[in-house]
Amino acid sequence: MRTMASTQSSSRWEELRKQASQVENELYLKLVSFSKLGASYSHHEPLTAVGTEGSGSAQAGAESSGRMFETMSLEIEQLMSKLTEVNDAMQEYVNETTETAPTPTMLHILQRHRDILRNYSQEFSKTKSNIKAHRDREDLLGSVRRDISEYKASAGGLNRRTDMYLKENEHLRNSERLTDEAISVAMATKENLTTQRGVFGNIGGRLSGMTSRFPLINSLVQRIQVKKKKDSLILGGVIAVCIILLLLFAF
Questions:
Q1: Is the predicted pLDDT of residue 29 greater than 90, yes or no?
Q2: pTM to 2 decimals?
Q3: Which of 132, 138, 170 is nearest to 59 (CA)?
């Protein structure tokens, strides 16, 4: 019976050792992947350095990395909790060993598994802290980038309104300039007409003066005009008589 109990106890110990080794291997692989994720965060290009065209893909990549970080953190914490339970079970097994004192080998194995768990916990905490620091930094830079984009958008709208006002002001200035030119042309035309009126007035005055000074010339001119009128009347009468005679002879 003692031999059977000893065999069962030994098989339990071996089973716990296998479980601990299996969980440690899984935890090791997860930590390696987690460390690579942390390295990718360290070498990740900040969002503020990404151009406008690539900001969408950079944002999507950051969100994907964030989901991967949460998932891997949860998986590692679950494995560490499982390894802690296995180590506690091994400790209970050592404490329950009453027939024979625990061998130095068992104590060494238990201590080694505890050291592995402690090292993995420290490495996980360190990597997780670094990743969180990088994520916080990217969130801050992303917030700054969004603020800058919003400011540029509002400034762009203000610049467009300013350009519209400047163009409208330029149109008004052009209209004022054309109006001034039209007024200047009108004033010049008015001055020319006034000058011509004065010239014609002077000419009329001179002619009146000449006729008043030389009455014979005025009388001669009047006679010539009267004669022209008589000649015109006579010529008209002759033409009328001829036409009447022609009509009479024709009919």
A1: yes
A2: 0.50
A3: 138
